Amino acid sequence: MPLPLDQILDQRRQRVGPGERRRTVVVSLLTHGLIVALAWFVPDLLAKPPEPFPYVAVTVVPPSVLGQPEPPPPSPPPPVIEPEPDPEPVVEPPPPKLEPDVPVLPEEKKVTEAKPPPPKPPPKAAPPPPKRQPPPKRQGSPFGSSLGATNRDATIGVEDPNFTYGYYLDRVVSAISQRWTRPLVDPSIVQATFYFRIDQNGQVTDLRLVKSSGSEPFDATAEKAVRAAAPFPPLPKQYTKKFGRDYLGIHLIIK
Q1: Mind listing the pLDDT tens digit for each residue in 126-164?
Q2: How many Å apart are CA 22 and CA 36, to the nearest integer?
Q3: Cα 119 vs. chain centroid, distance in angstroms?
Q4: Is 176 within 8 Å of 170 (Cβ atoms)?
Q5: CB–CB of 156/247 below 8 Å?
Q6: I want to staple 7 with a disulfide (CB 3.0 to 4.6 A). Which of 3, 116, 216, 236 is the partner?
Q7: What's the chain's Rg over C-alpha atoms?
Q8: Is the dihedral of CA 219, 221, 225, 228 positive or negative?
Q9: pTM of the full structure
Q10: Number of C-beta neighbours around residue 207 at 10 A
Q11: Under 8 Å between Cβ of 196 and 231
């Protein structure tokens, strides 16, 4: 039975040592180098040597020896004559214009007449001093005392004729007017009348609508302005001590 290929190769490797392998490689390299060298140099060695180039010896003899005249030397080329540039045209100046003989008259002297200066306007009369306007009378209220306060938006009156403190009523009217804005209602609606009391500390009590304007939004915004302005400043101490009153009745017309 034949041995497998692997066993045959293993047996061959065991018979051939490492030294034998190196010698085989060296011999193989030398053999290949020799083959390359022969392939390179053998064609040159086997080629035929080149044949010598044939040549003919020539002797140059001048024409005078042969009895022929020598040719004349070549004549130089004619000089190149450049054309002269055209002369520039001479422009003659135009003849001067002959002006007609006009006699020169001396300039006339302008005679200026001296005008008299305009007359000075008469001094304006000083305006008369402004007349002193009498102080505006305080508009009262149809209710209670004739003492009251008024402005563009409201008119106020008091129940007690003994209340003579106009500055206090001005402050009440100003506080209400600052918080009052007329709603967009019919222009024919004029005013609404309210009654309320201001106690000794400035608080508002017993606020009620006495006479309606005929418009609910108008009445509501007017009442809201009064409540927003409260509390007012305390009542004057001279009034409460002198008359023993702890409140002041107010009639208010908002318009």
Answers
A1: 666 666 554 444 443 334 444 466 667 788 999 899 899
A2: 22
A3: 61
A4: no
A5: no
A6: 3
A7: 73
A8: positive
A9: 0.42
A10: 15
A11: no
